[in-house]
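Sample entry (58 residues):
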Amino acid sequence: MSGSPVLIGPGNTLAGEGTVIGVLGGLREGGDPKKDGLSSYANRLDGDFQRFWTSHTR
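Predicted structure, serialized as tokens:
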């Protein structure tokens, strides 16, 4: 689902535990690339994002 976090461990990522490293996106909730040509993607939250977030949340 668009806006969902992309997680890595440690922890049970299926239970929502872990570290957020990205945010899921996709046109019309993603889709099946073989069926309708739509697919989901994730934007990785890297150092540039961290600097942006830090500078705008003070």
